[in-house]
Design a protein that fits this description.
With 111 residues, this protein is mainly α. It is 68% helix and 0% strand. The longest helix has 21 residues.
């Protein structure tokens, strides 16, 4: 009887341990504000950097307002169109945005 229970117990323990490793780690820290990608205090001209950042934030807010009712998949395209429409060279902006989207899709396929 012990000879039949031992392999069964081993299989149950193995199955349970793999399920435990598949769990996402829990974070005790609350959701923190995302750090800046670029610190303007390190730039050559910090004042100009902050002005560009504020201009970009305003453009993003305007685009978000214009795309408020769009569905998730459609919202990304709407945001891209709205942001590029406000840029100095909309055609160049669209091309760069499409390149970034292709790179993002490739990275997502790898994962």
């Amino acid at each position: 009887m012990l000879q039949t229970i031992t392999p069964l117990l081993g299989a149950v323990l193995l199955a349970a341990s793999t399920a435990l490793y598949a769990q996402a780690p829990k974070s005790d820290a609350p959701a923190q504000k995302r750090e800046r990608r670029f610190d303007c205090s390190q730039a050559k001209d910090p004042k100009a950097c902050e002005e560009r950042r504020e201009k970009l934030r305003a453009a993003h807010a305007k685009a978000a307002e214009a795309c408020k009712g769009a569905a998730d998949g459609e919202k990304r395209d709407c945001m891209r169109r709205e942001m590029c429409a406000q840029s100095a060279d909309p055609a160049k902006c669209e091309a760069r945005a499409k390149e970034r989207a292709e790179r993002r899709q490739k990275r997502q396929k790898k994962q």
